[in-house]
Amino acid sequence: MGSAAERWAGLQSGRGIPPEILAQAPRSPWGHDPADFTAPDVPADTPSRDAGLALLGVSGTVIDVGCGGGDAAFALVGPLTHATGVDEQEDMLELFETGADIRGLPARTVAGTWPEAAGEAGEADVVVSHHVLHNVVDLPPFLTALTEAANRGVVVEMLAEHPMAWLDPLWGRFHDLRRPEPATVDDAVAVLRELGLDPEVTTWDRERRHPHDPVWVTRRLCLPAEREPEVAEALRDVPPRTAQAATLVWNP
Known about the structure:
Number of strands: 7
């Protein structure tokens, strides 16, 4: 593991929830509500979509890693001839399948985490992975598997910094927990370069953002529901999550 990969792993490991806090959580802080991940009928015009369409050209296939409801893959409908969705949540894969059916798109799903599911997913012309890198600690195998699965290129979208970094003041307030600095796009690019890859990086501001209401934040902070009013009060002093994103594109 190179120095950039070690730095990434160290920063990401520091974002975990300490066992003593997790043990007190009345509900699991993990998981996502599929209702928040339904792909829009009209895809957003973003650098990530532009990059995917450019790689597909007239036609091609896609693997969507950490697919959720298929936002990344379905933005490429038109030249897209077949999509494979990979996700560890079965309800997300069901949402992906529904979205593909609605669009009349041939598709299949693979249940599992990446890169463990890479063998079953196989290869495609383009591999896309949106807002997944900040869930990964050991980044080189993840990136290597993305690259090996792509015949033409890889498109990764991520926020400029860890998406939960905006909650750091609340971890300090409610648990006296001090978080390390968040991993950033620059850190991810450094790992790619250690792997001999030279990504094209485009930074931009996202328009579509998931809601983070007091109920969601209370659960994420491993607090009981009766603390929601306190969390709502504390949120008034916390800046919202960054909207700055980056699109990373590279060829195998």
